[in-house]
Amino acid sequence: MTSSNTDGHTDIGRLTERWLDVVASGPGGGLGDGDFVRSPAGLWLALGVVAAGAGGETAEELEALLGVSGKEAAGAVGAVARALEGTDALEVATCVWSRVPLYRAFKEALPQIALGNLDQAAIDAWVREATGGMIEELPVRLGDDTLLAVVNALALKAPWRYPFEESDTDVRDFTDAAGVRHEVMVMHQEVSLADVWDVGATRVVELRTRSERGGAPVRVRFLLGEEGAGPREVLPAGWAGQAARVPLAADAVSIALPRMELRTTDEVTDRLAELGVHRATGEDADFSGMSPEPLAVSRVVQEALLKVREEGVEAAAVTAVLMAPAGAAPPRRIRMEWVRFDRPFGVVVLDGAGELPLFIAWQEGAPKG
């Protein structure tokens, strides 16, 4: 299969929006799963490895979702992995764990992907190491029929360039999506006017992180939409381009942001058909470019974590694709803009270029922290 895009950035954004469409159309009146954190980049990278070994109509379906398949998928996975190496404070690792033979051409097309023998304890230990202990084990247990697992891990620990003062953190109200008021711990800070803008009816606040290894600092954006707006309406403003941004008519901006900690385990398998992927999980799945063993996708599971504190942001995600046998201011009045995240809001974490959604999150209920 062919694709004009080989860096993956545009396709990860497209996958993110399709994933949000599926969530928004699910049970929950358009708000889908309530609080969540997900890693579009992690899902794209794991499925991209699988797509590199797909053929026929299986490859066509995966290409419709990912933008690439076959050799182009292998190249795009490598390009994205190399691009992410330039983002400070971010660790990315992918490994194919197998108990069936893999074609030499498949392995050589993915030189940056590690290989291992399929073993639950070994994979759990790899996950702990790859995420710095933020995720303790693979979010899915291997079955007797599991022949192969593609596992991607992303881990981020980034300090703010300007940390919040803990002495300024106090108790404030937060009204959840059901209209219930809660008392939560809220951090306060004035931010640069250049780091706040509107995209349509959504206000975007970018908190800068500090580079400690010389790479491009990760971009962390908090998004506040209109009352009643859900993640599908709000979160895409986090990666909207410069042309869509409207600066604020203010002289200074002060934010009130809750501490937060979100963890989600997402059974993506249940969403694959809605994302247009049918053959990869069926008896007629074609992964003939991966192994002489007939294989089909049996489970896709992701666990993701996001923590926001006074000193910085931490995030991690592990995505597993399991495969089984096929068939199986100046001296004047200051116009101060107050941005209070005191109702449902979103979070988008982007790579250093500000293009690739590494993590997306939606805080609908009372933040925990």
UniProtKB/TrEMBL annotation:
So which domain of life are we looking at? Bacteria
Q: Name one GO cellular component term.
A: extracellular space
User: GO MF annotations for this entry?
Assistant: serine-type endopeptidase inhibitor activity
Q: Known Gene3D superfamilies for this protein?
A: Alpha-1-antitrypsin, domain 1, Antithrombin, subunit I, domain 2
According to the record, the signal peptide region is none
Q: Cite the InterPro entries for this sequence.
A: Serpin_dom (IPR023796), Serpin_fam (IPR000215), Serpin_sf (IPR036186), Serpin_sf_1 (IPR042178), Serpin_sf_2 (IPR042185)
Serpin domain sequence ranges: 16-361
Q: Member of which family? A: Belongs to the serpin family.
Please identify the protein, giving its name as recorded.
Answer: Serpin domain-containing protein
